[in-house]
Structure formats: C-alpha cells, structure tokens
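Design job #97: recover the sequence.
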C-alpha cells in the first residue's frame, strides 16, 4: 500500500542512477487536493514549479490503460507467468537487458538494443503509443484537459502536444537522468505544462518521478546563461537552438546521476509514492529524474 509507507524512508531504500540518496538529500513532494481553490493551485504551481494532484483521474480509467499496456507487452515475456496483466509483475527470471526501459536515452544503453528479445519488447512498448486506449482515452482524458484549461486560463484554446511519451522503468535498468523538459521542447515557447501520469501505483522504491526542490531556478539559469552566450557570439535563433542541444549531454540530459547533481547544487530531491489517478503537472524548467526501480511491480 503506497500510502502506508513510512516517511522519511531509510536512505538505503532510495536509489537513483548513481547510488543511494543520503537522508539529507531527500524531501517529500507536496501533495495537493484537486478540489482546492484554483487560486491556491495556481500559487502552488508557481511556487514549487509543480503541482502534485492526488487522485485527479478516476482510478479505474488509469488501471484500464495499465491493463491494456501489459496485455500488449505480454508476448515479450516481460510478465511473471500466471499473473494478471493489470498487476504488471515483472518476471524475475528474465534478464533485465532483454527488457530495457524506453526513453532513458540511447547513450546509456537504454536505446533500441540489438538483442532479439529486447527488440521485441521495445517494439511493443513503442507500438503502445499508437493504440486508441493510449493516444485517445488516456492522453486526452477530459478530466486532465479540463483541469489544465482552468488552471492556465487557456480554456477552449488548450492544445495537447501530439507527441507524448509512454515511458517505462524496468527493474535492473537505468532510469532517466537529470533534465528539464524545455530541452526536449526546444522549438516551442516555454509556457507548456507537462503532465506526468503514473499508470498504476508506484511505491517509493518503485521508480517514480522525483523533482529537484525549486529546480526551475536552475533550469532557467542554464537557459538564460546559454541564451546570453549565444547572443554574444552573434548566433541566430536557429543556431542558438541547435547549439543548446550540443550544450547538454548527448541524451539532452543535464547529468546522468541525481545524487551527484543534488550534492553539486546543494538541493534536495523531492520524492513520493504514487497511486493510480495521481497526476503531477510541472513547468518546462522543473528539473526532474527518476528513482531506480527496485521492485518487480
Ligand atoms: O521517465 C519518465 O516517466 C519521465 C521521463 C521524462 O521526464 C521526460 O521524458 O521528459
Ligand atoms: Fe521530463
């Protein structure tokens, strides 16, 4: 039961790409009830750079997508024999390399891999993006859209980005490193809202998203410093955009290791367990990463 977990957790239980997070490197993500007054929700989004909405979506709608996802992936052998797809239980007999997490960046070995089994798994994970239960029912969920329309004041003009990312984070593989989303949205205005929606319950050690405390100040700093440098070099907007991407690791990440990043900037990572139905909204400069997945589920 994710909500029954103790906090603060023992430091050993909080692993990221570059090892455990120390006790003073973690804090708890602030949860918000979606029924709070809009003004309060807006203020929290501005203050924190994110808004963690507990139980925004109907749990059964999220679990439906989860079930469809694992039914689709099932022929790859990812699931433990005799378990229900909706439970998404990893078969521990499997070699993790055959089930790489997609989207964590090619340079760290999580790109499209060579092995036949891995290729099948990745192909199915990519195919999921095109399925109606995902791209229509899940991504365009009216409750999510309505909340964003109201929160931003965009109303009827609210547009979904057509390219969405259905990430997975499988046991024994590397999770996505430290980044802010504007890096991946380079050709758009930095006014978009990212919705990170866990497709099921995620325990603290289950590999959920983590946020650097007030990380958006760093994200903005990186962005501003670089834009200034580009201007000084006389670059055009287009040249600056391309150069930006060269300024990052080849994967578009600020760093591979969250623990070392937190030490360098003396900031905490904000962590939490998630339940199906939860949604986190964040700004394009919010700095995030993932916990390592230490659980089979
Ligand atoms: O791994 C995830 O679920 C999140 C990935 C992410 O933050 C991103 O693609 O920008
Ligand atoms: Fe992201």
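Job complete. Output follows.
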């Amino acid at each position: 039961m994710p909500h029954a977990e103790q906090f603060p957790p023992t430091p050993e239980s909080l692993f990221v790409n570059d090892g455990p997070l120390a006790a003073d490197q973690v804090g708890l993500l602030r949860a918000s009830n979606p029924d709070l007054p809009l003004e309060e929700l807006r203020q929290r989004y501005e203050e924190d750079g994110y808004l963690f909405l507990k139980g925004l979506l109907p749990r059964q709608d999220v679990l439906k997508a989860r079930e469809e996802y694992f039914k689709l992936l099932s022929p790859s052998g990812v699931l433990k024999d005799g378990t229900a797809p909706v439970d998404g239980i990893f078969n521990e007999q499997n070699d993790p390399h055959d089930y790489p997490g997609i989207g964590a960046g090619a340079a760290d070995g999580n790109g499209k891999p060579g092995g036949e089994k891995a290729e099948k798994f990745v192909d199915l994970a990519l195919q999921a993006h095109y399925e109606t239960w995902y791209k229509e029912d899940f991504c365009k969920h009216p409750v999510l859209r309505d909340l964003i329309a109201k929160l931003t004041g965009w109303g009827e003009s609210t547009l979904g980005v057509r390219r969405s990312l259905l990430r997975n984070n499988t046991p024994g593989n590397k999770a996505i490193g430290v980044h802010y989303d504007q890096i991946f949205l380079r050709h758009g205005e930095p006014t978009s809202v990212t919705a990170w929606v866990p497709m099921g319950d995620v325990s603290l050690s289950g590999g959920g998203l983590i946020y650097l405390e007030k990380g958006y100040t760093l994200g903005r700093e990186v962005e501003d410093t670089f834009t200034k440098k580009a201007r000084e070099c006389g670059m055009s907007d287009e040249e600056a955009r391309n150069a930006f991407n060269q300024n990052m690791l080849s994967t578009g990440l600020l760093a591979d290791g969250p623990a070392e990043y937190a030490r360098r900037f003396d900031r905490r990572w904000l962590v939490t367990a998630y339940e199906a139905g939860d949604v986190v909204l964040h700004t394009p400069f919010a700095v995030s990463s993932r916990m390592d997945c230490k659980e089979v589920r």
